[in-house]
Structures
1.
Amino acid sequence: MSDTRRRVKVYTLNEDRQWDDRGTGHVSSTFVERLKGISLLVRAESDGSLLLESKISSNTAYQKQQDTLIVWSEAENYDLALSFQEKAGCDEIWEKICQVQGKDPALEITQDPIDESEEERFEEMPETSHLVELPPCELARLEEIADLVTSVLSSPIRREKLALALMSEGYMKKLLQLFQVCEDLDNREGLHHLYEIVRGVLFLNKAALFEVMFSDDCIMDVVGCLEYDPALVQPKRHREFLTKTAKFKEVIPITDSELRQKIHQTYRVQYIQDIILPTPSVFEENFLSTLTSFIFFNKVEIVSMLQQEDEKFLTEVFAQLTDEATEDGKRRELVNFFKEFCAFSQTLQPQNRDAFFKTLANLGILSALEIVMGMDDLLVRAAATDIFSYLVEFSPSMVREFVMQEPQQTDDDVLLINVVIKQMICDSDPELGGAVQLMGLLRTLIDPENMLAPTNKTEKTEFLSFFYKYCMQVLTAPLLANTVEDKHSKDLQEGSTKINPVCPDNFQTAQLLALILELLTFCVEHHTYHIKTYIMNKDLLRRVLVLMNSKHTFLALCALRFMRRIIGQKDEYYNRYIIKGNLFEPVINTLLDNGTRYNLLNSAIIELFEFIKVEDIKSLIAHIIDNYYKALESIQYVQTFKGLKGLYEQEKDRQTQRLNSRYRRETRTLDEDEEMWFNEDEDDDEGEAIEKSRPEEEFPESYGKYIEAKKVKESEDKENFPKRTPTGSFKFTFSHSTGAANGTNGANGKPAASTTASPNGSPVKSAASPATPVVKTGMVGLVDYPDDEDEEEEDEEQSPRKRPRLGS
């Protein structure tokens, strides 16, 4: 079915002009009925799935590069590349493409996809016959050569023909020899022409020319030509930098000469692209795509050669890195080598990159980082941080697994994560650049979203327990140290949250605390149980709110954001903690101190209360109105606090209505059925409860003695039931006890029995226990006793305190 099958890697060019590896498979060219034409098919070698299906279109421009690459564009901004393992396979597929398009396989580009002008249609002649005719390579003709090179850049076909002409008869090498002559003669005009020529040749975007220009014999002359930019008064000294300033350091001797040559070449070509060549304009950005690809595939080859062909190399590097006898200077070079090595590894395809980092992990890279990140050398610590970021980005689970397997030392500071946290805290950079990077890495490590690997379902629980046990106190230490409670001020204002305002005035310290608060805010949102326990145990929110006094507004906003995230959880445990600690006080003080300034701090505080209002968090609304409304009622430019007061009043009205409905129900039942209640037969099925009521019905005057006999029980129950007022009506009183609020008996926690009306209007008495209080309810409500008025007066005096709070 297929003509050939060759092993290839499929690449696509992403938006950042970098090549992404799409997989490895085998390519074939065959007729596809659905596409109605000969197509390139690539099936994955792992599972046979289809990686690529691309029809060979007669209008598509295919380009052959470096003998083993075929590159083309299928749509706007969608570039594809096939990288062949063998040159023979590339040649065979290239011939098939040229056969379909009717082109000569000797060419390295098949089409001009851009310009359909008459000039280029005229040039659509046998491609080998009319090459661009180059002037003789002489000093006097340099201007003519420069004009020719510049003129062809707008036409892909003419660029192709010029490239073929330049590669014939060693023309490029002759030009570079003229450079040496011009420099010896100090011929500035000739050197300026050579700059234009070499720059134009690079923009031809031809891999075959790059192979010549970037060879060991020619590359320094190419760099020399690019020093003489006509726009500069004095030439740059790039060659001096490459030969004298930039030093190639072999931390471990590299014996493979080809590998050494490839490393040198890649560094110099990268230097040309990044430093020497000007930033390409929008119209020139595609001219150097082949140069980018050249560097990319060089890096892939270097990493592969280091990892595979020299197996003992990495082992020896790690042995020296972890050896205590290694000098600091040597260790610094080893760390920098690994930093560059990890950076190069990003060019590997995913499966090879996975193998690469697993190899580093097995060799002990994380153990080595623990040692290196504790060194005093700032450059070494920075390089180690970069390596750590590569590892965390690759596999957070791998780092977490290593951390949890570390032997539990008596000193928690030796743990890798604590070393990272301490480096973040001790960052000497005034802008805290390293601390910001490390904070991002910590957040990745503690993010439950990347702890969902099905192979280890307990990872989240185990790691978070580990982190909060061994690491959280290290992270919060600077925060707690800068928010020390002032006991004297607490004595002066009992119940206040006033704390000694030792808020950091130092900008760097304030920035650090802001980073820590950002991480803690992340924890509140993602670590529901662990962070809640930590906040409660450490009274952390109270300490954080000290920072509302900071002169740095960004730090006060961070503290406010922390509280806002806590309230946003809508968790009653948090709400009770805030109410008990009176923790709205520093927030409201800040709002009042801010005055009439309409700034971000004002808006953020208003939004906090607006959220409470919109979500109707009853317990917090009651607390705010009961304690702070007098201070807040003057704020009229928003309706937030007026709305909170309205919700508070509505809830009070609802509770009042519920109480009144209960009162009406019980009163009606007693009025209608009073006679029937007292005339019930002694043998009624109510059992012991009725037996206890009969002496009270028949001998009311003996009830005082009955009260004395049941004094303890009566004192517990009588407050919960209606009493007669002087006007003959009834009223309710409430107990302060939690049991009363929850509808339970204060003594034993059992539900209190109640009297309700049945559908036919008769009382239905529950008999939850032999000592049911239903009968006593009736007796208290129906018999007038001398001491009722005294009890009523006491109830009236205590009623404001006995009013149940919302949400209780």
2.
Amino acid sequence: MGSSLPPKEANLFKVIVKSYETKQYKKGLKAADAILKKFPEHGETLSMKGLTLNCMDRKSEAYELVRRGLKNDLKSHVCWHVYGLLYRSDREYREAIKCYRNALKIDPDNIEILRDLSLLQVQMRDLTGFVETRQQLLSLKPNHRMNWIGFAVAHHLNSNALKAVDILEAYEGTLEDDYPPENERYEHGEMLLYKISLLEECGLLDRALEEMHRKEAKIVDKLAFKEQMASIVLKLGLFEEGEKIYRSLLFMNSDNYRYFIGLQKCLGLYSEKGVYTSDEIERLDALYKSLREQYSWSSAIKRIPLDFLEGDAFREAADNYVRPLLTKGVPSLFSDLSPLYERNGKAAILEQLFLHLEHSIKSTGCFPGSSKKEPPSTIMWTLFLVSQHYDRRGQYSLALAKIDEAIEHTPTVIDLYSIKGRILENAGDLPAAAALADEARSMDLADRYLNTECVMRMLQADQVGLAEKTAVLFTKDGDQHNNLHDMQCMWYELASGESYFRQGDLGRALKNYLAVEKHYSDMTEDQFDFHSYCLRKMTLRAYVSMLKFQDQLHSHEYFHKAAVGTIRCYIKLHDFPSKSATEEGDEMSQLPPSQRKKMRQKQKKAEARAKKEAEERNEDTTSGTSKSGKRQNSRPVDLDPHGKKLLQVEDPLLEATKYLKLLQSNSANSLETHILSFEVNMRKQKILLAFQAVKHLLKLNENDPDCHRCLIKFFHKVSSLTSPETDSEKLVWNVLVAERPHISQLSGKSLIEANQSFLEKHKDSLMHRAAAAEMLYVLEPDKKLDAIMLIEDSKNTIAMGNDALGPVNIWKRQDCIAVHKLLEDVFKDHGSASRWRAWALRSI
């Protein structure tokens, strides 16, 4: 490194390297210029100068210098290494790996290059290459702990956990008997726990248990040790020992639900589906009663029995659980109880209980069977609970009556207004829900949660401008909208994107959806810094868990929503292309001269204003520089705030396909993924891919209304195609002819008969009737009125619980909105759409 230089310049070259490592970029630049003054074509110096400039945000100069340096010294590992570092800084990892491999051809045993290469290999999940590189590092420096650990982790990630165990045991064989010293006890304990988890993963449970007993004194994290021990003995069937461990864990934390599940498994009283025999319920009840005597303060011990108890025992337990929380005034009580509504009969029992409590407090001021007077707030919290119950059951008028009564009783409790806003939202009155949420927010301006809920309600009501002004109240000063992006505020971006999409503003919708996609790319990149950190700090279990999480990152709900929204935007853009500049010019030319002049003046003023604001922001954000020469607080100015450039794509379906592939690989079990695949591929005339999507839908849920739509639309489209002429068209046709008899819905039936059969099977479901009606209109356009009648003849079935429960409508607000949209957009019948809207409002 710098060896071809005279001693003085060679020392200056070392100064460049040291300045780069210590981030003293101006000093390094000065030393580089001193060398280049005498040796202007010295390749390694040019490369290091380029690397320094790259850290000072002068990328174009940096690439030019590094390429020039490499051209002057192709056989220098330094030049190739620097070129790789440059690509790495720009996240061009594959190119960086190529550069590192070229550097290693020149200097195969360079530790730094090998280490950098291994980081990129694990980042890109080149696990075979990662194993080879870590093995080479270990052979070069076998006395370095990190190399042993890195080699073991590499094998584990490469699905060879047993080999990883052997490596860790070989490493332990190199240690002294009194190892570790006091300052390394935690790191060594983490390594031992990682090794035990590997043995458990391999199924070597006896060996893992033996290792735990042997190394217990050397493991510092006693909680993790006990949890691992409990897991292993449970798998080994040592239930008595497992019970003792789980009871000791409960003594440490009596509100950890996992410990209760473990204890139940040890006692043979656990069911994944939550279904128990009467004998098991009695034993479970006795278990939790004994635990309640020991841990009277634990809320989990009081709450868990509500999941398995039934009938009168359930009512009694729920009564005992609810009373103290109503007296105390716990706003989250209903959220705690809401999972019980999924279990048969429990919603009816809860309503009877809630109404009985309400009646008793109103009439006597006490709970039933008690002579102790309750504080005045108890009735308010009881009404609060009852209103949420009615909201959950879809009885919005009763819910609103109860919450209004609670507000009249105590008008200063903010939670009441929040819940009233939620009830109005569920009832379909989105503007009123937003107004209530804003009123709740104004009662406590320092509460971030209330601000967040208010913003969400405003976005649901398509009040985007007002929502943004409200959201930025809790951001830092400066470019406030960018702060929301910097904070990765994805719920806001998704809600904004959905609102803009509903309003037909595809540019801004795409901008918000793509911002969410950018956050997930950043999360993927953020793991890079942990590859070396976690090996150094020995947080191996957390590290492997993080890598597995990263591998499933794009299956997260927020990414799924963003990708779906993006694809829908591109589909709409394909169906209704945005106007080009030429078309806009033609439209303007048709205007009268006076209006044309005014329009152009407005456009020029808007462009000038935007340009001036951008320049001012640029000056503000790039004015400061650090001592090292690197700009501070620099943020690129958004030159396309309304997303207009995002609409200027040549092939929207090609862009949609990029995100569709991500959904197919990460959300293959989602109906929405395959519905979008069908929509995109039908538009691209990719018949077999569209058919593949239909088959996936039938496999996931053949009774889904959207699945039925796709099936009928597909074969209707195929039937309208011209006779195949080319060999490929004939091949596609033969595949469809061979596959159709295997589809049970179409076997021996025409499409009209299949649609009628679907309707008869699901005649009591609104959404299924709507799907059948739409397909009737597609197959027989002259029967439009019959199709509309199918929808209008739908009846809102009443689900009866008991006398106290009252009627509960089956229809949901979202379903009624979807049917209204169908009547307007597909049938294009505004009269029936208006009638449906009025009827739906009365029905729900």
3.
Amino acid sequence: MASVETAAEHERILREIESTDTNCIGPTLRSVYDGQEHGLFMEKLDARIRNHDREIEKMCNHHFQGFVDSITELLKVRGEAQKLKSQVIETNVRLQEDGKVLIGSMEELKQCRVQQRNIATTVDKLAHCLPVLEMYSRLQEQMRAKRYYPALRTLEQLEHTCLPRAGQYRFCSIMAENIPKLRMHIRETAMTQLRDFLESIRKHSDKIGETAIKQAQLQRSLDSAVTLQPRALIGRRGRKEAAVVTESSGEGGSPLSEQDSGILDVEDEEEEDVPGAQDLVDFSPVYRCLHIYTVLGLRDVFENYYRKQRRKQARLVLQPHSNMHETLEGYRRYFNQIVGFFVVEDHILHTTQGLVNRAYVEELWELALSKIVAALRTHSSYCDDPDLVLDLKNLIVLFADTLQGYGFPVSQLFDMLLEMREQYGEILLKRWNLTFRQILDQDNFSPIPVSTEQEYRQYTSQFPLQDPELEKLSFPKKLPFSEFVPKAYCQLKEFIYACLKYSEDLHLSSTEIDDMIRKSTNLLLTRTLSNCLQYAIKKKNVGLAELVQVIINTTHLEQSCHFLEEFITNITNVPPETANATKLYGTATFKDARHAAEAEIYTSLNAKIDQFLQLADYDWMSAAQSSGGLTTSDYLIDLITFLRSTFSVFTNLPGKVAQTACMSACKHISTSLMQLLLDPEVRQISIGALHQLNVDLKECESFARAGPVAGFQGDTLLLAFSDLRQLLDLFTQWDWSTYLADYGKSTCKYLRVNPHTALALLEKMKETSRKNVVLAQFKKADRDRQKLIDAVIKQLRNLIAQHHA
């Protein structure tokens, strides 16, 4: 079976050798040599060769004659061929000779065609490379000129359009490698410029805010009735915004300008008197950086960075200096910085598309508003100068109006100003307290002498004096009040003006202003002026004449209260009969002060009387003398003289005040003399001492009858001495039977004698009488008197016991 397969394989190889090109017979023969039947194959190959040789031989034998004929013809053809060959060679030589020029021309043409093709290829390649080089050159120029936004646009065009067309060249690869570096450089440079811009506006926000406030102030002064246009401070904004819109579309050029960031010099102010924010600040770094980051696909990164940095700056701006409250300039710088900050943010809001939005700005403003109000509350509380508070209020109003013009809500600022109004009122009260005290300290408490009509009109213009009788008097004459009255009245009006100044521009109604002024004026009257008058009345070394003048002054000030009402009505245009209108408490204030002065007069007069009574030096053990030999005590004479001179200056006082003072003085004298009799330290009193006291009492009664003060009816003033008079009459006349018999009856002669008082005085006389009895060695008259005193004492004790039961 194996031999059959081998034979078949050898047959196949032989057929393949016969039918295959000799160039490809190698693999076939290799397969033979690789096998194990090499010898057998060689035998078959030899057999096949012998078969072919036999067939060739048969073929040759069959075609031999034809072959001979062909050889004969071939020999003939060879001769002709030799001739033809020689002719061809000759022709070729001639052709070669004739074609040398043509071949040279053809070579030249070929070379020219090659050069032409190379030139066309070069031109084509250059056509693609030159824009790359031109674009790169333009990029370098823009980079050198710091025009980064168009440079970034150029870079985008170079990367996505020009370089792909140029092909793979080394310089293109270098450019492609530099593109990310250039982008990073542009990004970092733009961010650096933005940082410079942020630092610049942080440093110059004071100037920006000052300019904004000045323009708002100018706008308000030009036409306070016209509503401020929002964002009026952005000077020539329309022209600037048009440029921004153009650049936002991304078609050519850079946004706005390519100037350095910072505050620009304002030299040409012909177009506007006050430059706008756009005139002071170059916002191009912001726009440029925004566009660059937008192109780079990093707009969110830029927005977050910008907002984060501005929030940090806001916190710095809103942090007031520790000594801001010391001067108005400190507040002004604080407000200028805040206004400058929000003017910039408002401009960015309206000139960029989404860098900041309204919600972000409102959030910043709410944060700022809370911090501003807290800072102002804290620092204004340190202020004790009303002028500074008033200037601060005007500055806050201007600050609020400026920001309100940009659409920021400022109601909290005006609410805080209403809170500050209370503080301002307290500071005013403190200042006017010092003013009133200074006026009182400088006042001489004497009527004002006027020598001419001009002086008189001068005082009546300061104080509404209406006294027809005084006007009829010829010059020189005296006004009834002292310098304090016109000065105090003028100060009251000045206080009202000060309150009115604070209420201006607070958007309050006339009724609210009127109510505020009246309440503040009431505080001034009831607290400040009242305390000052009490201070003047209660201070040491104040004389009766001064107290009298205080009463006269307060009387005239009380009469002027309705003029103050009219004054407030005229400046607020709110009639006093308006419902819920606050009334002035001036009348009550001056009445209280007058009553205090009257009480102080009574107290001072009694204190002076006490000083005289301290000089009383009675000899309580003096012997009895005839009434003709006794004289009034010296201290009492001096006291009566003092009272006469004192009551003589009471002529300008209201009648009841003078009468009350006189009655009070007489009662005090009577009570003091009674106390001298009943003094526990005086243990013994003789009848002679009672006679001396009786003489002094008669002098007092004489003074009372003389009528030191007009207005008393009959002997009314004598009633002040009636208690002492009846007591002395009872003892000097020794009319005990009448007293004991009529006691308790309304017709009793000694109705005002208290049995306790009589008993106490009898006890002292008993001691004296007992001592005299011992010294007189029991004289009968003294013994009888002693017995009589004992009997009266016993009866008085029984009377007291019965009355008590």
4.
Amino acid sequence: MVMSSLKLQDLIEEIRGAKTQAQEREVIQKECAHIRASFRDGDPLHRHRQLAKLLYVHMLGYPAHFGQMECLKLIASPRFIDKRVGYLGAMLLLDERQDAHLLITNSIKNDLSQGIQAVQGLALCTLSTMGSAEMCRDLATEVEKLLLERSPYLRKKAVLTAVHMIRKVPELSDTFLPVCAKLLHERHHGVLLGTITLITELCERSPAALKHFRKVVPQLVQILRTLVSTTGYSTEHSISGVSDPFLQVQILRLLRILGRNHEESSESMNDLLAQVATNTDTSRNAGSAVLFETVLTIVDIRSAAGLRVLAVNILGRFLLNSDKNIRYVALTSLLRLVQSDHSAVQRHRPTVVECLREPDASLSRRALELSLALVNSSNVRAMTQELQGFLETCPLDLRADCASGILLAAERFAPTKRWHIDTILRVLTMAGTHVRDDAVANLTQLIGGAQELHAYSVRRLYSALAQDISQQPLVQVAAWCIGEYGDLLLEGSCEETEPLQVEEEEVLALLERVLQSHVSLPATRGYALTALMKLSTRLRGDNNRIRQVVSIYGSCLDVELQQRAVEYNTLFRKYDHMRAAILEKMPLVERGGPQADEEVKESQEGTRLLEPAPVPTEPQASKLLDLLDLLDGPSEDSQQPPPVDSSPEGTLIHLLDLPCAPLTPAPIPNLKVFEREGLQLNLSFVRPPGTPTLLVITVTATNASEGDVTHFICQAAVPKSFQLQLQAPSGDTVPAQGGLPVTQVLRILNPNKAPLRLKLRLTYNHYGQSVQEVFEVNNLPVETWQ
């Protein structure tokens, strides 16, 4: 006997009237018990009411899986009221993960053939919502027949179901190709919108379909021209004065796909795109959406040069819009265009710079990225000044990107060395803790190569250090410069700066202050200690104070600093006659390209012990990884590089054995290891001559697709007989359409010169989907390990 239970309306009222969550659970558990009892008793007349209550319980987040089979029974029922609730339950309770969903295939097939519109509509909605690949293959013929039905209601639902089928089973494209051409003559907006969506899906998944539908470009152009002129279609689809913006946007997207890399199709739509761009009202969001889609189509096809300038000018007008969303999409689109249409985007540089002052963080970040991309040799002074002003007031999460961008722009477009040095010093003064890891090395190399600016640089750095010792990269560069050119600081002969009288005691006191400061990093103390040691050969006074400071750090808890102090003490005690030669000024370094700089750094690794190597302020940016567990090879003992003699005598020999110039390594061919949906990964190799067991791999990620690749992470693993050092990447976003690539450096030590096996794991987001790829690279060139 069926137990008495609540009606759906009464159940809703009782659940909403529950004072606590416990009361709500009690009501639901009691009613679920009644529903189960009713299902067991098999009451056919009230089964749909019980399932309706169960669906409401499911929508509240409570388990309702025991109603799945009841959905199948209701779908098979001849009564429409049962079918309606049954199909609704199937859409909510069933999906591809449950095998039970395959049991309704035959019921859907029968209902599609019934001839009753309401029942056919329910079956089509269910199939388009939860139809699996197997169901789509079985029911494709029935859906194709319904595409030619007289009723627009059925044709619209059948088209949407066909879209779902193509997404699930792309090989069904040939089934729906013929009927799409007929549906393009539709006058019903809903059917036409669904048809355009279906053709778009077909073109994206089938090259044959793309070639086939390029023949209908004139017809699509005529449809859109009719929409723009507001004749031939009903005004009931007008939104804010724009005739059916949804249909216009979908047609523009399809035209963009058909005109990409096709001259004839692009030529046939140029006039129409110009008409849409000039006649669309942008006072409302609907018009702005159509205009933005027009801009994307113009820049993606082979359009005329004047049309591309018009598109950039439209985006420039978007930057003046009061809507933040419109300004954001304008900045994002201009960032994509800055490589291909640089001069046109440059005209809107003042407006872009104004967007830097936006209080919205997402807008200011996009404006910063675009501003950095607009910097060139002709505007580097003005743009750098604007960016430095932004750096003073920007949020902390933007400071690192802004500082790094200014440094890169200055390195590429610096008009003079002095301007370059002044720019870096100002950035280090304002945001020293946020700069890139290589900023210290780049500035020391720049100053070392500018012999005429040594006196100017050491005075500027000394003044900056005297005012603030909290910016660690600035302190490191200043300590290095004072150690190298301290004699020029004391001479006071620099004409480019204000007169500055500095005493030896003041210089020594400032370096001791750096050593004693609690904010100084161990690397910074290493720079300061080395500077004191070098000043012992450049100052004319007594070195007792320097010797006392050095001896104090001989018992320092930091091992690196302690070893450095012990070595310096040994120099004073046993090798005082060699101290001046060992601590002489560093030779001038010729600045080359990035590849040459990398070779110089690698060839001098392990030999430069006096000067503290520039280390990142964030230790996690570069870590030694032992990731054998990602590989399936046999476990081996980890082998370390050859030991270096740590005795004072051996250290001095290494100090004097500095290479004069890097040797040119033999070229190693590049290797493409990954390609998917436009994302490509290439490996380039360098083996520094000074360290033959070291291999430097540069991973370069490029993106030729339409969508940006975001949250890009590349991880690597090698067997335990190797040592791997994975450096920080240049970014985590690979811009679309061949934008600036993302690079990452891998340093692999191979002491046994064994064949190299490399395993890579890529994680990224593309077109809104999260992707993870793991693959092994076994075809590395022989030159990488022999």
